[in-house]
Amino acid sequence: MKIAIIGASGKAGRVILEELAQRGHALTAIVRDATRTKHDTVLEKNAFELTTEELTDFDVVINAFGAAPGNEHQHVDLGRHLIDQLRGTSTRLIIVGGAGSLYVDPVKTVQLADTPDFPAAYLPTAKNQAKNLEDLQQTVDLHWTFISPAAFFDPEGPRTGKYQLAQDVLTVNAAGDSYVSYSDYAIALADEVEHHRHDKERISVVSK
Question: Rounded to an integer, what distance in angstroms lies between the CA atom of residue 67 and that of residue 87?
Answer without folding.
Answer: 23
